[in-house]
Amino acid sequence: MLLKNYFAPSKSSFLAVMTCGIGFLLVVVSADAAEKPLKVFVLAGQSNMDGQADVRTLDFLGEDRDPDRASLLGIFKSDSGALMTRKDVWVANAGVYGELQAGFGGRRNYDKLGSKIGPEYAFGYYMGEAFDEQVLLIKYAPGGKSLHVDFRPPSAGNTGNEKLDSRVLTKEVAEKWNGGKVEPVVGLEYRKLVRYVEDTLSTLGQRFPDHEATHGYEIAGLVWFQGFNDMFDVTGRQKYGENLTHLIHDLRRDLHAPEMKVVVGVMGVNGLENEENPKQRDVRNGQRSINSLPSLKGNAQAIETAGFCHPQIVAIKTAGWLNKKRDLKAMPLTEQEQEMLARATSDKGYHYYGEGRFFILVGKAFAETMLSLLGENKSGETPPDE
Questions:
Q1: Does pLDDT of 12 surpass 90?
Q2: Were 60 and a residue from 189, 261, 289, 344 both cysteine, which residue would form a disulfide, CB within 3.0 to 4.6 Å?
């Protein structure tokens, strides 16, 4: 009999009741004794999965008008200013392998941590809270890459552009960026993603010395957050849904994880109103299309992210074009608005303005959706229509 919450045991242990000659014996058993497999989640996409929010912008989360959201800041940053870390969640990203902490976002030198976060920060926290077993996040997120060309999955076939389909890396480019391997350009990032996951899993003992090889691992889920570069190719954006479906099926096959659950973040750059942009609307609709496929029902889900953009920041940053109600020449930024932008943002619009608040909220939503697909969580937060 397993008494998981009796006497509030720590996450690293559980209580079991065992029979003996004179009655019952209450035993504290290490979770390691259960030999549960390492829970692996693959986080893939382009620069917004990489994450471009400087940690200095996290404090703005505490200013959210929703008190429940504002209270989340205390999870990720203590009153003393210490940022959250978790030893029960590991992260593999480019040349860094270590425990979950801030700094796995975009950085100049990918062989060391930087000062930015992506969705992995909050996603990893909630995965760590949910599972007794050790969690590993494998993040592969090169910037400026499309699904139509760069991440093109094998079963999608050729792009139809003969010149593009015949291109291979030059020897010089291959030496600098691909370990010397000369191969076709189309689908290169797909293949590199698979190789990175396989390499990480085949060297777990080297990368993470505390891993018990006898426990093995399970690739439980994939989170896909991408889409910006596909807007600029008419075929790419119109066939996004078809290519995404191929991606899900191919990764399940090539990673030998047929039961892998999949969460897709619907691109939300510049918020809800940017649906007026037909290019972005095409990509968003392609991402949403997986929710209507019978073969993916209950095992893959696309969720909206536009509602997590701060409406006031979007209104200011898009004044004069998307937000036609304001002309910054006639109504320049106030001192308070300038101060808010300085606190809240650290990058361009296509990077969700480098807003830490956004990346915490979207990472949390990814986690809640993943846990729901895995049967671990029945509730989730839906972005409000602001």
A1: no
A2: 344
